Amino acid sequence: AFKAAVLIQQWYRRHVARLEMRRRCTWRIFQSIEYSCEQDQIKLHNFFSYLMDHFTPSSSKERDFISRMFISGESFKEAELEKYCDYESMEVPDSYTGPRLSFPLLPDHATALLEAFKQKQQLHARYVLNLLQETRKHLKQLPNISHVSTCYSEEVTVCGDLHGQLDDLFFIFYKNGLPSPSKSYVFNGDFVDRGKQSLEILIILFTFLLIYPKEVHLNRGNHEDYMVNLRYGFCAGLIATLRVHGKKILKMIQNVFCWLPLATLIDQKVLIIHGGISDTTDLDMLEKIQRNKFISVLRGKKRKESNTNVEIQEINGENKAEADPAQNEAAPSLLLQPQPAPAPSMANRLEFSKWVRQTVQEQIEWCRRLVDISESEEEELTYSSVVSLTDLDGPCWTRQEEWKQILDILWSDPMPQEGCRVNTVRGGGCYFGPDVTEKILTKYNLQFLIRSHECKQEGYEFCHNRKVLTIFSASNYYEIGSNRGAYVKLGPDLVPHFVQYQSNKTAHTLTMTQRQGFTESAFRALREKLFAHTSTLISAFKAYDKDNTGRITLSNWATAVESVVQLGLPWRMLRPQLVRSTADGMLEYKSWLDDLAVEQRSQEHIQSSLLEVIYRNRSNLETIFRIIDRDHSGLISFEEFHQTWKLFSSHMNIELTDDGINDLVRSIDFNKDGNIDFNEFLEAFRLVKQSQ
Fold it and tell me: Taxonomically, which superkingdom (predicted)?
């Protein structure tokens, strides 16, 4: 009996160890593919940024298109934005049975919203826009770094990424209680994307923010970004749900996102930021940045703010208006650079500061008129601008330096090694080591750092000698049962107390077969990724097959696969799930790739070479389609296509007349309805591939 018990124990331990290894491998696969998609998004955005920076518009229409390329719709000033999103003109029908809001909001309104969303009801667009306008007004008065004290509440609860998973937010409120004067919350960004109920989460969080402005604090995450929302589903989902007023709501949400605070400090000892830090992180600079300038953090550089020819002529003492009288008549005020007033004496610091402000503002306005770029909104006295104006004697930072500060705190990840290096896995931000953490904590007299941004299997994880805490609140992020969610509570002693959970009840009752199915879904996603790189893999395999035998060693297979897909996975460990075992340790790579193609073709009846291209580029093509579709109608108009083609053709040095572009767009419009939908857009790329 004793020997039998020992045998059962050994078998059980081996079985648990195998399950844990499979779980970790599955985790690595999902995470590597996720980061690879983020890297593709940033590469795509950088490509469009390059095109825009090197494109010279030939007309005011093209100039307007360029200035709006990465901002949905027109650039509204303050009054124009409120007029465009006028909620008072919207009538709520008598048949509407959902919740109704009146301002100022009360706790009963929040309770009614929670109950309505549990019943799958929607909030009418009138109330959504009203809520967004009030939220925007409130956020504009907040500093870049919020300050929270545990003296005024029993504890502060910090939540990580929610990613549109409303069940997780409901569970947090059920276990921990609703926000109240005695219960403060900090929500650390990434409220939207991926999940299906992003808008509901925003409505709930903004409602509690307005009811308890001193107890509820929101940080901006890397997904509170218009360009990221284009790829990961928030924009498309919102427009599909709210077809009538969706564009107005989306425009207002984009404006609200850029006003979200960047960080939160608890008792001046615990810093909460979404991503991380870098060796150049400067909290003093973060405190003074005008954060609303960065609607999308992905785009760091703006278009050149002056025309090269004009600059050369100004340097040579010439004036283009004098050289070209005809153009001078057309736009006399556009090219005449304002001459600064004589500088007052340095002895009078107040007068000198006013002179500096006025001169700089005049020069900025002149540059802006030169390229016909208008500000997204009027200059107002907000918290950030007041801080900037009262610190005129302090250092001046360039827009690039400010952008780098925000990019780092929203996109960075910790690493176990010392130092700070570029985050090549995500494509944005940096990797920071324990020495960088210690340097920042010492410099600002902090105890530890709380961040989110990374999904963790247990919902939280310490690193850097417990000086960096990652908290992630979206359970079942990749698949049901893939991970727990968690939140952390901090009392006056600032000792973290964690609560872990699975909001989906089925995750607790998964059978062994169902858990294995979760693992299989990860390998299925990995096989799709491998199939999308078939052509490149063949070239990599042939480099190891010098004699053209069609066979390579399994070790060379693992090396070649990593060199192509660059996911950083343990391919030798994953090999049994991807490659059939062979007696001599050699792999017939063409046969293996044929098996991958057969598996994918069983789902799509398209020849494998075309399917490979679609699998590899579909996400990028979909994002490009949404960028061109500026009005989020789900269709590309002929005008939108015309202006975008001008952008591409200037980069590719292709001469094409307007009539030629019109013929091209009509050939893509297969159903002849005057617009291009996404299927027609994809079909055009298939036809190009076939002709090649």
Answer: Eukaryota
The partner residues of 441 in beta bridges, in order of sequence, read: none
Give the Cα separation of 218 and 660 in Å (integer). Answer: 50
Rounded CA-CA distance 293/306 in Å is 19
Distance CA 557, CA 589 (A): 8
Q: In whole angstroms, give the CA distance from residue 486 to residue 159.
A: 7
**Torsion angle, alpha carbons of 309, 315, 319, 323, to 10:** -60
Distance CA 662, CA 527 (A): 40
SS3 assignment, position 459: coil
Sequential DSSP letters for 231-277: HHSHHHHHHHH-TTTHHHHHHHHHHHHTTS-SEEEETTTEEE-SS--
What is the CA 663 to chain-centroid distance, rounded?
36
- How confident is the model over 409-450, as pLDDT tens digits? 999 999 999 999 998 888 788 999 999 999 999 999 999 999
> Is the peptide bond preceding residue 104 cis, with omega within 30 degrees of 0?
yes
Looking at this protein, which amino acid is placed at residue 201?
I
pTM beyond 0.90, yes or no: no
Alpha-carbon distance of 410 to 296, in angstroms, equals 12
Q: What domains are there in the chain, each with its CATH number?
A: 81-91+98-300+396-501 (3.60.21.10), 513-599 (1.10.238.10), 608-691 (1.10.238.10)
| 3 state SS of 486 | strand
Residue 223 among the catalytic residues: yes
pLDDT digits (tens, 9 = 90+) for 209-267: 999 999 999 999 999 998 888 888 888 888 888 878 888 898 899 899 999 999 999 99
Query: Alpha-carbon distance 366 to 413, whole Å?
Result: 40
**Nearest to residue 262, comparing CAs of 70, 95, 410?**
410
- Return d(Cα 369, Cα 357) in angstroms, integer: 18
* Terminal-to-terminal C-alpha distance of the chain: 72
Both tokens assigned to 652: 């590719």
Query: CA dist 655 to 9, 659, 688, Å?
Result: 75, 12, 19
Strand 270-272 and strand 263-266: pairing? antiparallel
3-class DSSP state of 158: strand
Count of other CB atoms within 10 angstroms of residue 442: 9
Cα separation of 475 and 167, whole Å? 9
Q: How many helices (H) and strands (E) does the chain have?
A: 28, 18
Angstrom distance (rounded) from CA 235 to CA 627: 11
Residue 327 pLDDT: 41
688/692 Cα distance (integer angstroms): 6
Q: Which two tokens stand for residue 222?
A: 């890397």
Question: In terms of Cα–Cα distance, which of 9, 152, 136 is closest to 76?
Answer: 136
Q: Point out which residues pair with 472 in neighbouring strands.
A: 161
Sorted by sequence, the CB contacts under 8 Å of residue 643 that are 6+ apart come out as 61, 62, 65
Q: pLDDT-derived band of residue 573, with 50, 70 and 90 as boundaries?
A: confident
Exposure b/e, 626-650, CB count within 10 A at least 16 = b: bbbbbebeebbbbebbbbbbbbeeb
Active-site position among 109, 163, 223, 642? 223
